[in-house]
Amino acid sequence: AAPALRVAEVEKGKTPEDFQQVYNAIAKKIIDDDEYDNYIGYGPVLVRLSWHSAGTFDKNDNSGGSYGGTYRFPKETNDPSNKGLQNAKAFLEPIYEQFPWISHGDLYTLGGVTALQEMQGPKVPWRPGRVDLPESATPENGRLPDAENGADYVRNFFKRFGFTDQEVVALIGAHALGKTHMANSGYEGPWGAATNTFSNEFFVNLLNEQWKKEKTEAGNSQYNSPSGFMMMPTDFALKEDNTYLKYVKKYAENQDVFFEDFKNAYKKLLENGIEFPEGTPTIVFKTLDEQEQ
Ligand code: HIF
Question: What confidence tens digit (pLDDT) does each residue in 34-85 have?
């Protein structure tokens, strides 16, 4: 099939200031609803939703991806790979009621950018204009990754997005955030201590913790450390592959380099397959903290 052209079209009459208002509403709700998931808050699950809304992309036919906002349809919401994300969906519903002009693709991706920035992560420049596609555009289940795999699988999986080894390692640093939940995925526990602060802790822990491979009660393989941290096989794969390992070391040593590479890779993830016409604004959102000064 000829690649479908997904051209961004900014919501009529909306300016960067309108999207900053959406950012602010999401950021305030993250603070207000802080009790979620034993006080981790909604930041991590919003990041995960933004990536899963984009993670169906296939560059071979330009299908899937964040553009159409198809996560809102039951087939995608109920994809077993999306278990747990209904919490992020419910979180965003009152935001959508307040800003009904925004497309779902813009809302899901903006939710992730807001969460990353409010959790002290890098500024991820963001462009608006995703357009809701009909239910028929919803991709089949099974396009999201299976964590019970090694480096070859990870490298091959991310080829569908056109990501390099360096970009893949940078992205997976986001697993410093949040935790795995037995009921969602058959894994259990956090990757590190600071579950709602973005940092290079994932890489530091991958290199420095003493890992022991064990079976979870769901029968999955999980690496556990005495500090109570965990890694899934696809995480641990970054240590077992020499090319990946080179970047793991680089990011463990230098958080600034990690932040810069992560920002670029995450922007690419959220924009895969979309053509942004000249004149589309690139928005660098202010954090709530910056606006208070
Ligand atoms: Fe995750 N990821 N991810 N992930 N992920 C989980 C949780 C989070 C993979 C599997 C899982 C990325 C890549 C991959 C986040 C963000 C990103 C869980 C646990 C699984 C199984 C879900 C649960 O049990 O609730 C795999 C196989 C990936 C490819 C290698 C991205 C790069 C790291 C793209 C990314 O940004 C976040 C955040 C969470 C935590 C969610 C939470 O509710 O705390």
Answer: 999 999 999 999 999 999 999 999 999 999 999 999 999 999 999 999 999 9
Domain 6-143+267-292 -> CATH class: mainly alpha
For CATH 1.10.520.10, the residue range(s) in the chain are 6-143+267-292
Query: Does 52 participate in catalysis according to the annotation?
Result: yes
Q: How far apart are CA 274 and CA 272, in angstroms?
A: 6
Average pLDDT over residues 178-197: 98
CA of 291 to the centre of ligand 1 (A): 30
DSSP collapsed to 3 states, 123-155: CCCECCCCCCCCHHHCCCCCCCCCCCCCHHHHH
Task: Write down the catalytic residue from 51, 126, 191, 211.
Answer: 191
Mean of per-residue pLDDT scores for the chain: 97
Q: Where in the chain is the domain with CATH 1.10.420.10?
A: 151-259
Q: Is the CB of 121 under 6 A from ligand 1?
A: no
